[in-house]
Every structure is written in C-alpha cells, then in structure tokens.
User: What shape does this take?
Amino acid sequence: MRAEFILHPTEAGLFCPEGGFHIDPLRPVSRALITHGHSDHARAGHGAVMATQETLDIMRLRMGPDFAASTQPADGPTRIGNVTVSFHPAGHVLGSSQIAVSHDRGPKIVVSGDYSRMANPTCRPFEPVPCDVFVTEATFGLPVFRFPDPSTQVEKLFASLSEFPERPHLIGAYALGKAQHVIALVREAGYDAPIAIHGALKTLCDYHVEQGVDLGDLIPATADDVPAQLVIAPPSAFASPWVQRFADPVIGFASGWMAVRARARQRGVELPLIVSDHVDWPSLTRTLTELGPSEVWVTHGTEDGVIRWCELAQIPARPLRLVGYEDEAE
Assistant: This one.
C-alpha cells in the first residue's frame, strides 16, 4: 500500500482513512490525534482527541474542560482501525510528540509536528524514529537559519542585566513553551532572583512546575512597582497599556526569528535573544540524514529549500502545502 493511501492532506488537515482520524486537524473532526498544545495544532471542538497526557492537560487549561467530546491519553502503540499509532517525544514543548502511523501492508509514516534537536529543560528530547516517510516542518527551512547555543543568549541577557541594573528587562516569549524555556534556561545558569511574569503566563507556568520543571521564584508583574529586574510576558502584552508601568525598559524578545535582524528592528527589540523550539537548518538536515527515510513530506514553512536539499541528497520529497499552521511557538 502506498503512503498516500495511509495518510494524505485534506481541507481539514492530514487524514488517515484506514484509521478514520486526522492529525493536527485545522477544523473540528470526529477523531483527532494532536502532536502538541499550540493553538495552530490543537483546536477545540473535535469528537475524540488522542494526545499525550501533558498535551491533553494543556488543552484543558487553554480551552476549557469541554474542548472535546472525549479524550484518550497516548500510552504505547494503539490500534485504530487498520493502522497502529504511537507517540514519540518531539523536543518542542512540554508534551509534544511525533506521531508514527504504521500499516501491516504499507510504509511507516512519522509526522513530526514541530520538533527541536536542542536540549530543552522543559520537555523530553527528540526521539529519532526509523520510518519510511518522514513528515517534517520547515519553519526555519533555509540555510541562513543556524541557531547559537541557548547558553550564549542567556549570557547576552545577563550582560544586559549587569550593564543596565536600573532598567527593567521585559522579555517577550510565547505563553506555552517559550516562556518556560527561557525561565528554565536562566535558572540553569544560576539566576536565583525573583522573575516577574505577566498574568497570562501564570496558569501554564504553574502546570510546568507541577510537572517537575524548575522555574524558581516567580512573582506577578501586576503592581505599579514590580520588584524584579527580569520580566517575562507574551508578545501581545507589549502592545497593551500594561507595558507603560515600566520606566525605560529594555525590550527583548526570545525567538528563532531574532536571527533575522530586520524582524528585531520591526518589533523595536533592543535585546534580541535567538532561542528557538524548532529545528534550524543544520538540525533539520541532520535529522533527515540520520533517519534516512525513503521519502520526505514537507509542511508549514519554507518548503522549497528543504525539497531542494532532498533532491541533492537523492531523497524523494514533496510539499504538503497545508494551510492554517502559524508560528505560535516562536
């Protein structure tokens, strides 16, 4: 059986007719398998949802207890219809997974979702899963994207904190994954002073702490005089009156897109921190080399660069061109 008969793109997203389910569907469906909790992959309104327990918890926290008619935690290989599915760590955010789909008479397909190969103290590391077809993201699928070690970005932050001790440092980071990643990196580097967080981050930070992620002393960034030099907030807060309570702040932003200087200038970012939860170009191509799939499908990102690399590596590749996937995690 050809891979296209096991999994193929539809208007609702990747669909497996042999199992009657979609993976990260773009609209409500009867049965959904979800790779992780970011809103461009996890949506409310499905009949049934299977995901890791962490992802199910995160969906409940973000969407409410009735986000789906029924839920099932992923726990080892599971037979659904005529296929077997299994979930494997993706290294992207807490609970993130790759989803492997196997058919007795066909190839094994691994849908990576969003993934990262860099060590991340907030989630389990990426697990290479041998497969015939690998579905890769291409968010940063161009050779220009080569991310530094996150420790160098923490050093940059510390240098600014030392140089401007009188100025609050407001760091923009997305509420799920990036905010906790930045805080955990700072804690690992020995920063033990209180860190103030915007109210929109509290619920997810509390959940990470419940799951054993050390975020240290977090205080609310709600008072007019916040007693912390380091403040973490979602990007949306920087366009709200909330930011006006800070006098002469150093504005920072943590994202893989900070590797593009023009993006930092457009956002008015004084302290760009290149911290990503996605694969950069070397990590993406290394992953494809390690896995050695017989075919690569490329989605949500710069597809052409990855497809061209695959052609040179003599790996058949094609774009899926799924719409609806943004870059919330960055």
